[in-house]
Design goal:
By secondary structure, this protein is α+β, with helices and mostly antiparallel strands. It has one domain: 2,3-Dihydroxybiphenyl 1,2-Dioxygenase, domain 1. The chain is 16% helix and 34% strand. It contains five helices and 16 strands. The protein has an eight-stranded mixed sheet with strand order 2-3-4-1-13-16-15-14. Strands 6-7-8-5-9-12-11-10 form an eight-stranded mixed sheet, covered by helices on one side. GO terms for molecular function: dioxygenase activity. This is Ring-cleaving dioxygenase.
Length: 310
C-alpha cells in the first residue's frame, strides 16, 4: 500500500462560458481565482483555477471553458459530486445565499451523519456543501463570503461506477481505507490526510455511461508532496499494471495520469511549485499567464479570449 498520497489536489471540469464560470466561483461561492491561464493542448481556451488564498492542494477547482461545448450527460464512469467543507451551522447561510443568487438544484440532505446542501453549478455540475466542525483549514475571506461561513476546501468527491470493486481496491492501494458504508455507497478516507481526504464510491449497476461535456468532471487529481514522491507512486502503479503517463510539467505542479478500472481519469499532482511561482500571492489570478510554449500567442489570445469581468 502506498503512503505518499495525502488526499485530493484538484478537480478539473468542463464549462461552456468562461465569464459565467468565473462569476459563479468567485461571487457565488466566494472562492479566489488563483490563476488564469490556458489549456496546454488548446491555447485558445482558458484554464481557470479557483481555491483558497494560496491555491492550497485540496482546495483547487479548475475549469476548461470551451465555448459552445455540448452539455455533459451524467452517468457512471465519472465523478458525480464534488463536495466542499464549510463550518458547522452555516448551511442556513448558504441556503439563503443560493436562493438570493438563483442557484439551481438546491436541497438539504444527510449522508454518513453529515448535514449537506446539494446544489448545481451553472452547467449542471454536481456539488454539495458539508458541515465539518473538525476542518480548521483557513478559507479565502477577502471575497464575497466572510471567514465564519466561507468554504474551507474540498471535503470529498463521489465516484459513480457500475462496479466499484476494482476502483475500491485501487484506492486502498493508494492509501485509502474504508471508514463507512451506506446502501450502495462506500466511503474511503486517508487517515491524517490533507483535509480533502475522502472518496465515496456509489455503485449503480444499471446506469448509463456518462458523456463528457459542460458540467462534467474531466479528471480528479490526488496530492503528493513533491516529484520524488510522485515518481515512487508512478513506479508502483506501473508495476501493478496501470498505464501511467510520463511526468508532465503543468507549470504549477507536475502531473501523471492514468485511467481507473471504473473509467474515471485519475491524476497524481505535486504540491510543488505552487501558484505563486509566477505571481505574487497578493495578486494571484489577476493577469493572464501563459505556458512558455504559447507565449508567442499572447497578442492574439488577449484579443480573442472572453473577458472574465471582476
Amino acid at each position: 500500500m502506498l503512503d505518499q498520497i495525502k488526499g485530493l489536489h484538484h478537480v478539473t471540469s468542463m464549462a461552456a462560458d468562461a465569464r459565467q464560470n468565473n462569476a459563479f466561483f468567485t461571487h457565488t461561492l466566494g472562492l479566489r481565482r488563483v490563476k488564469q491561464t490556458v489549456n496546454f493542448d488548446a491555447p485558445d481556451v482558458y484554464h481557470l483555477y479557483y481555491a483558497d488564498e494560496r491555491g492550497t492542494p485540496g482546495s483547487v477547482m479548475t475549469y476548461f471553458p470551451f465555448p459552445h461545448i455540448a452539455k455533459g450527460h451524467p452517468g457512471v464512469g465519472e465523478v458525480g459530486t464534488t463536495v466542499y467543507s464549510v463550518p458547522e451551522g452555516t448551511l442556513g447561510y448558504w441556503e439563503k445565499r443560493f436562493a438570493d443568487k438563483a442557484v439551481s438544484g438546491v436541497s438539504r440532505e444527510e449522508k454518513f451523519g453529515e448535514k449537506r446542501l446539494a446544489f448545481s453549478g451553472p452547467d449542471g455540475d454536481g456539488f454539495a456543501l458539508v458541515e465539518d466542525k473538525a476542518d480548521n483549514r483557513a478559507p479565502w475571506s477577502k471575497g464575497d463570503v466572510a471567514a465564519d461561513e466561507a468554504i474551507r476546501g474540498f471535503h470529498s468527491v463521489s465516484l459513480r461506477l457500475r462496479d466499484g470493486g476494482a476502483t475500491e481496491e485501487l484506492l486502498k492501494y493508494m492509501g485509502y481505507q474504508e471508514v463507512d458504508r451506506s446502501g450502495a455507497i462506500r466511503r474511503l478516507a486517508i487517515p491524517g490526510g490533507n483535509g480533502a481526504d475522502v472518496v465515496d464510491i456509489e455503485t449503480l449497476p444499471g446506469a448509463p455511461l456518462a458523456r463528457l461535456g459542460a458540467g462534467s468532471v474531466h479528471h480528479v487529481a490526488f496530492a503528493v508532496e513533491d516529484r520524488a514522491k510522485q515518481l515512487e507512486v508512478r513506479k508502483a502503479l506501473a508495476d501493478t499494471g496501470y498505464q501511467v503517463t510520463p511526468v508532465i510539467d503543468r507549470d504549477y505542479f507536475w502531473a501523471i495520469y492514468f485511467r481507473t478500472p471504473g473509467g474515471v481519469l485519475f491524476e497524481v499532482a505535486t504540491n510543488e511549485p505552487g501558484f505563486d511561482r509566477d505571481e505574487d500571492t497578493a495578486h494571484l489570478g489577476e493577469a493572464l499567464k501563459l505556458p512558455k510554449q504559447h507565449e508567442h500567442l499572447r497578442p492574439y489570445l488577449e484579443k480573442h479570449l472572453q473577458p472574465l469581468g471582476e
